[in-house]
Design brief:
With about 110 residues, this protein is an alpha+beta fold. The chain is built from two helices and six strands, in the order H-H-E-E-E-E-E-E.
């Protein structure tokens, strides 16, 4: 009986579409956490940096399920752009346009 119970989630996962598997994979990654960095540029100048981001999400219409032209997430606003979380810097919600925002998102190598 234990072997059967072990195989049920594996078979259910294999029966999922590729997109569903990707979403499940991202959910596991988000749960375990990553250390992303988002840098926003105005021309060649760095103007905002968010650190300790676990994911960026593409917005979707609530009823249409069509992707919207912006992304959002939660991260620590690195107000002084030094790359580390200082005592007065806190986690904030942010949004940015996919069309008009120059940005780089990467995992913190440290």
């Amino acid at each position: 009986m234990k072997k059967i119970l072990l195989w049920i989630p594996i078979l259910a996962f294999c029966a999922c579409t590729q997109e569903t598997q990707n979403k499940l994979g991202r959910a596991v990654q988000n749960w375990t956490g990553t250390d992303g960095v988002l840098e926003i540029y105005a021309g060649e100048k760095l103007v905002k940096r968010f650190i300790e981001i676990d994911k960026l999400t593409t917005a979707e219409g609530t009823q249409s399920n069509v992707s919207r032209p912006y992304r959002f997430g939660y991260g620590v606003l690195d107000a002084n752009l030094n790359g580390v979380r200082d005592p007065l810097e806190s986690k904030v919600y942010f949004e940015f346009s996919d069309y008009s925002t120059s940005y780089v998102f990467y995992e913190n190598p440290d």
